[in-house]
Amino acid sequence: MTVLMSAPTTRRRARSAGSAAKQSRRSSLAVSRAMLWPALATSIVLTQIPFVVTIFYSLQNWNLLRPGDRGFAGLDNYVSVLRDGSFLSSLGATVAVTGSSVVLSTVLGLLFAVLLDRNFRGRGLARTLMITPFLVMPAAAALVWKWSILDATTGMANWALGLVGIPPVAWNTDVPIVTIIAVLTWQYTPFAMLILLAGLQAQNKDVLEAAAVDGAGPLRTFGWITLPHLRQYVEIAVLLASIMLLQVFDPIAIMTRGTGGTKTLSYLLYERAFVGLEVGEAAAYGVMTVLVTIVVATVALRTLFKVFSTEGLGR
Amino acid sequence: MKLTRIARRKAAPAGLAATALALALTACAGAGGGGGGGGAAGDGEPVELTLATVNNPQMKDMEELKGEFEKDHPDIKVNFIQMEENDLRDAVTKDVATDGGQYDIVTVGAYEVPIWAENGWLTDLTGDLEGDADYDVDDLFEPVKDALAVDGSLYAVPFYGESSMLMYNKELFDEAGLTMPEHPTWQQVADFARQLDSDAVDGICLRGKPGWGELFAPLTTVVQTFGGSWYDEDWNAQVDSPEFAEATQFYVDLVRDAGEDDPVSTGFTECLNTVSQGRSAMWVDATVAAGLLEDPESSEVAGKMGYVHAPVVKTEESGWLWSWNLAIPETTQNREAAVEFVKWATSKEYHQLVGTELGWSRVPPGARNSTYEIPEYQEAAAAFAPITRDIMLAVNPEQPGLAPQPWTGIQYVTIPEFPDLGNQVSQDLADVFAGRSELAPVLERAQQLAQEAGDAQK
Hints:
The structure holds two protein chains of two kinds.
Chain A: H1 2-58, E1 60-61, E2 71-72, H2 76-84, H3 86-116, H4 123-135, H5 138-149, H6 156-163, H7 171-174, H8 176-201, H9 205-213, H10 218-246, H11 250-256, H12 265-275, H13 279-308
Antiparallel strand pairs in A: 1-2
Helix pairs in contact in A: 1-13, 2-13, 3-8, 3-10, 4-8, 5-11, 8-10, 8-11, 12-13
Chain B: H1 2-29, E1 47-54, H2 57-72, E2 76-83, H3 85-97, E3 105-109, H4 112-118, H5 126-130, H6 142-148, E4 149-150, E5 153-154, E6 157-162, E7 164-169, H7 170-176, H8 186-196, H9 216-225, H10 242-258, H11 268-276, E8 282-286, H12 288-293, E9 305-309, E10 322-327, H13 335-345, H14 348-358, H15 375-380, H16 385-394, H17 418-434, H18 439-455
Parallel strand pairs in B: 1-2, 1-3
Antiparallel strand pairs in B: 3-10, 4-5, 6-10, 7-8, 7-9
Helix pairs in contact in B: 9-10, 17-18
InterPro entries (chain B): Bact_solute-bd_prot1, SBP
Protein name (chain B): Sugar ABC transporter substrate-binding protein
Pfam families (chain B): SBP_bac_1 (PF01547)
């Protein structure tokens, strides 16, 4: 009887205890949500409102030098963006410049990271020197390349080519895209190297020892143990380098001026806004750029990274 | 490693989107302007003027000497904001176009003055200048004034001006036994260049760097002297005319045969560099370059250079015309004080002041006739002052080519679309310099772009 009597009470008590817990959990959730708001509001203010304003501008007919003609243009700016053809060619240039620089930086970065992962005298100094290109301001780096290295008559590059009997190259005129990729690779190799070096140093030494005990040579150890381990580091390096290289502007403005397939989206946007002073059209280019990057980022990057995934390691 | 996965899934699109967004935003916001402007004048409170200017040496001299002005006008204080040419153009355009009112005085290039004046952005200075007999407005170079005037009114005052001329290395010419005529033709110049070109020395240096103010400054003058033009009198684009093609082909061939090795990298600064090191025999460019070439500290060819009129084909003269000018935006609160300063900085007394305080070779050239009468200046700039004056008085900004044109200006077209047009066409021409493209398709596209811009003027 007492048992029978007590059972519902306990249950009720348990139930009330449960709902109290649920309530307190809910209120603590409310608190944490409230804590999130300032950050969320800031990011909305900083990213979404300007984006909305950009969309608004993109629907305007607005050249800064024609203040009288400002007005609603509907989708005219988008029509001219799509019809002009410079958007697509610029997209191609962006993919070519960014893609090759990222791939080259990562491959060279891996090479240097492996070298720097070894023990040798002066390793700290070598590491610092290797990182330096990444720390130089992009505009300064572009100027050094333009004047000291790639100058057609007095540059070091042509001097070096001359030593092996190759005639001088007019870098910015004849091979502008190679020039830009060279400068970018030089700047971003240290960045990839730094991330991959961190990956190499995070590698479990026991595993390497076990592999050595099992009789695996350095090449096999590298191919079957180190590389799979580095996969995530490579992904991060590629991702961050791509994000940074997409915005590249300085070497293009200083060295090739957007000629010969080096007019990337960021340079095109600059031209529309600051040379053309076409605020509306520049905004339309901006919106299109955002749309394309979102599509590329969601589709292409995901399939790209599947390539790196290996059986069993894919988490 | 969950984090990287999430980062990859979520942050990638968001991060890239933010990147792209940042691009889009810069496109709209751009570089911000300088500091705040001065408030209105109160009783006894000094008026603070804000002056936005390019960071050219002549402007830096003006800032150095502003103390003299402030000494004479204890109630006025002048603050200088110096910027790169492109930054200045952006900052001032934005400020004036959006009624920002940050600046009381702005430096405006010759190309922008008529456009801005027609937009109602600049105050009319005619009355202030003509009303002051001491100022002697008629002493200002006539062609420079013409290029700045809108319907006979002056909306800006030239601070210094320049034309273009042919500069040649006399030593190299003597060695080769060549003589440069006083008024050479382009054909003669091309022959000289091809003769003088060797492994060690370029026959000629001509700008090839894309940009309306880089490649198209000299190239437009070449087109005009070949009988071509950007537009006819009714704003019909003339880029597909045989003269335009002939002139451009001539220019490109000359550069490829006997010019600098890397034309896309070569603008004013790069040519100055090669010529002043004696690595280029000729150079057609701004007259102000002469002052730099004659400076023994920075130039190895000081005293070895000769200067003649810019080469021609069918016209009498082919020099361009450019000036940096002081103007007062409509939005200023301190118009009277600003006028005082503008008058001071462009006066005869200022030229005397620069000469005595800073040296005679630093007097702003190409603005006033009387400057060229000053004996000390004549002596200091003997190599290039007389010819600079001759050319500046000889050029005709109202009709530089063979046919009449509907705008005033020589190496540019005074329409808002021109920087964009010139920039795009010169980028395409880079492909022709490199041999990646033929000239015909480039000019075909240029004709289309030019016609679109021309249609906007009709």
